[in-house]
Write a structure and sequence with these properties.
Layout (H helix, E strand, L loop, with lengths): L5 H23 L31 E5 L10 E9 L5 E9 L8 E4 L4 E3 L11 E3 L11 E9 L8 E10 L9 E9 L8 E3 L7 E2 L4 E8 L5 E9 L11 E5 L6 E5 L4 E13 L4 E5 L3 E4 L7 E8 L2 E7 L6 E4 L2 E2 L2 E3 L6 E4 L11 E7 L9 E4 L3
Parallel strand pairs: 11-18
Antiparallel strand pairs: 1-2, 2-7, 3-6, 3-8, 4-7, 5-6, 8-9, 10-12, 12-15, 13-14, 13-16, 16-17, 16-18, 19-20, 20-24, 21-22, 21-25, 23-24, 25-26
Amino acid sequence: MFKFTFKQKLQAVILVSIVTIVAYASVTGPEPRYTNAPGDLGNCVSCHDTFHEANVGSGSVTIDNVPAVYEPGEQYTLVVTVQQAGRQRFGFQLTAIDLDGNRIGTLEPINNSTQVNPLTGFGNRQYIQHSESGTFPTGQSSRTWQFRWKAPVDDEGVVRFYISGNAANGDGTNQNDHIYTTSTLAESPTTVVTVELLTDPEGQVLEPDTHFLIDWSATNISNVDSYELRYSTDDGATFPITNLIFSTTDPDVTEFDWTVPDKFSTNARIRVLAATQAGSAVEVLSGKFTINGSGATIPIITGGQVKGNKLFVFGDNFVNGSKVYMDDVPQKTKNGSGSATKLKVKKAGNNISPGQTVILVVHNPDGTVSEPFEFTRPL
């Protein structure tokens, strides 16, 4: 029979003790400063030997019920959820700090599934986290915790919540767990930025190379980091960087003399976006207007073909974002192999019987529309 030496027995006892301590620390709550907040020691990957970085698994950590703008002195019940299919136990740690990294407000448990760590971090910040009884799933491969955040009595500016979550495999060790992180913020009454467009071209027809004064206003401009103006030719669906009108980091600049480009669109809109020093953004859109440029590309349908359950529409001047309408009903449309002369409509072939005639129309994102085309599926 194989016999252990005294030294081997001692090493085994020490190893078991270490594993037991690690597992116990995991279920009873992590050490402070692992929320991924600036000034913390990192996130839960630091203590869980996961062999990878955070946020690479199929799960997530989320926080809900955070107010967009908090009222000083009010209490809010926040909800944190960690989920991942097939995981057995879950944990989290959260802190609430201002833009300087200091504690803001007060975190409190409302049941025995969470606890406030008795140790604090940089800026006297608090940490609320799972308790031992709060590690077991409460849903299908997930765990949700509720706790209270009391807003400061006085307006102390933006609060940002940082969360690190653990989707553990439940083997009692710190091995092969998945870690997730996220953050969100709540503005205060003195930091929330709102934007209003004072000049709106809604309903107007703007000619190329003419001038239109874009005038806007913003509240709490001391919290404005920058403004950016862009225009859209597809009714606000996209605002590409190529459609940049103007940008500035001067919060006092609230107007710009726009030279209308030589483009055509009956679905144009202007967007004013204000980025805040807290990292959030707020935007306002103009009403829909027309740019009467020469860049119109009127789509033209020249034919169609049914293959299996797909309908292919052939023609000219199809662009990225073109959409086929069949008998006035919009269809799920894709450009065929990046072509500007062919569009693919999935499953539309199932709705056209042999010998049946349908009316096809193509709408381009700039608002141009093809002439109706009668397509009859061959017998």
